[in-house]
Design goal:
Length: 316
């Protein structure tokens, strides 16, 4: 049975996301994340203890991939330098690019994807606060790690403070290693490219990007393997919580932002045959006031000739 709408009523269209509302929201969340990341510095000695605990745990499970990768990146400049550029830049370029791509070409999927990313990012901030962790590159040299970004700093814009530009090391929290949001954000980008990319190349990039990023963060001695695992776990939790966050946001919006009521036409106006002031027409009448002219100028038995010049000619 076909669906019919009540005449004279129109349902209010679903609100469409606009870039001038999305951009400030993303900037606010990122600013909050950056500020919280700086405030969550914690105790340096405690961060070192956490890092050594992770390292011992990995060795016990034979998961210590950081040492061989770090030695490779340190020895082979043709690998280490591109890896440093990868770590210092793509984190801040690919993620916004994928967001813009989703917003422009996959608008139906954008809100869920954006909520997933933001929820996971805030969960990561909680991890930085509760578990400040010293990355491998800041451990004592006796543990066998080399800071490749410091080693190759003459090739890029960064100094000895991870990916921070030279002279801005104090503006970053170098003990926010657990979880690795470099890996988490790369995983999010990979899922988006795999699910919504229309070509094999896009899907291949969706697989390669998070895998290469995981190798890079360990080879540059910026993260432990378990940091990368924690980054992926944070994204999993964010994915599960994203629908709840969206429903909560919808409830808040419904409560504080009045929705547009359906427009209902006046029934007396909708059923009226008035087309202009004082002019009425009906089926079979070709000109306004015809009925009025017939009633005033002709008797019930009068011939069409007496009805006026506007009457139709008799059929012959």
């Amino acid at each position: 049975m076909p669906h019919t709408e009540t005449p004279g009523t129109e349902a209010a269209p679903a609100p469409r996301l606009r870039w001038w509302t999305e951009l400030p929201l993303i900037l606010v969340v990122y600013a909050f994340y950056s500020a919280g990341r700086l405030l969550a510095r914690g105790d340096v000695s405690g961060a070192v203890d956490h890092g050594l605990t992770i390292l011992r745990f990995e060795k016990a499970l034979y998961l210590n991939f950081e040492h061989p990768l770090n030695r490779l990146f340190t020895r082979e400049a043709w690998i280490g330098i591109p890896a440093d550029f990868w770590y210092a830049s793509l984190h801040y370029l690919v993620t916004p690019a994928v967001l813009v791509w989703l917003f422009r070409s996959r608008a139906v999927r954008y809100r869920a994807a954006r909520t997933w990313l933001m929820t996971s990012t805030l969960i990561g901030l909680i991890g930085f606060t509760l578990l400040p962790t010293c990355p491998p590159r800041l451990l004592d040299a006796s543990h066998g790690f080399v800071d490749t970004m410091a080693q190759y700093s003459s090739y890029g814009w960064w100094g000895g403070a991870a990916s921070a530009p030279r002279g801005m090391g104090d503006m970053t929290n170098q003990y926010a290693a657990m979880p690795s949001l470099h890996v988490g954000w790369a995983l999010w980008c990979g899922v988006m490219l795999w699910r919504h990319g229309g070509t094999r190349l896009t899907k291949a990039a969706g697989v390669a990007y998070p895998l290469i990023t995981t190798i890079v963060v360990m080879g540059t001695a910026n993260h432990y393997f378990l940091d990368a695992v924690a980054g992926a776990a944070v994204m999993g939790v964010g994915l599960l919580l994203a629908p709840l966050v969206m429903r909560g946001a919808d409830r808040i919006k419904a409560r504080f932002v009045p929705s547009a009521a359906p427009v209902t036409a006046d029934s007396s106006t909708a059923g009226s045959s008035i087309v202009s002031a004082g002019c009425q027409t009906s089926a079979g009448e070709r000109i306004p006031r015809q009925r009025e002219s017939v009633g005033a100028g002709a008797e019930p038995g009068a011939s069409p000739k007496d009805a006026g010049d506007g009457a139709p000619a008799p059929a012959r």
